[in-house]
């Protein structure tokens, strides 16, 4: 499967990657460590709904102290929205934002196209655990009533 800039897919174990496409960043030097990160979520603006990624980020934060949200092209606005939802609800603190461009192969035109890329690193807030337990308790009460 070929990635066309702003899309990424989730593999069977819930980790997201760019499907082994030969997208290369000039700073990457051939290292494939980027796709191995266990706390990275690569976001698409077409594959999944916004709150899928918000909930996925919360699950990742239960396992890791920080997560990295990344996106290409048109999905950048989706990543920023996800980060803002998590920040405004008190789940995370913003640690860093990195922007860059990456070359992706345009299958139709047969050439390399430059795409904007963003990486936002978020760390757990001090209130994360209490907020998560409160939301799980609230969800449990709703499920018991129905």
From TrEMBL:
Taxonomic superkingdom: Eukaryota
Regions of compositional bias (Low complexity) in chain numbering: 11-34
UniProt xrefs under Pfam families: Alba
Location of the region described as Disordered in the Swiss-Prot/TrEMBL record: 11-35
Domain DNA/RNA-binding protein Alba-like: 39-90
N-terminal signal peptide: none
UniProt name for this protein: DNA/RNA-binding protein Alba-like domain-containing protein
């Amino acid at each position: 499967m070929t990635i066309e800039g702003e899309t990424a897919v989730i593999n069977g174990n819930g980790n997201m990657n760019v499907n082994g496409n030969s997208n290369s960043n000039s700073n990457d030097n051939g290292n494939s460590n980027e796709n191995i990160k266990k706390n990275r979520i690569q976001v698409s603006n077409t594959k999944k709904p916004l709150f899928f990624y918000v909930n996925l980020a919360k699950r990742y934060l239960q396992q890791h102290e920080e997560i990295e949200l990344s996106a290409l092209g048109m999905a950048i606005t989706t990543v920023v929205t996800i980060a803002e939802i998590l920040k405004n609800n008190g789940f995370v603190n913003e640690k860093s934002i990195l922007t860059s461009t990456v070359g992706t192969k345009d299958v139709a035109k047969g050439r390399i196209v430059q795409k904007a890329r963003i990486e936002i690193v978020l760390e757990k807030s001090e209130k994360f655990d209490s907020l998560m337990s409160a939301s799980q308790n609230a969800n449990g009460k709703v499920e018991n009533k129905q």
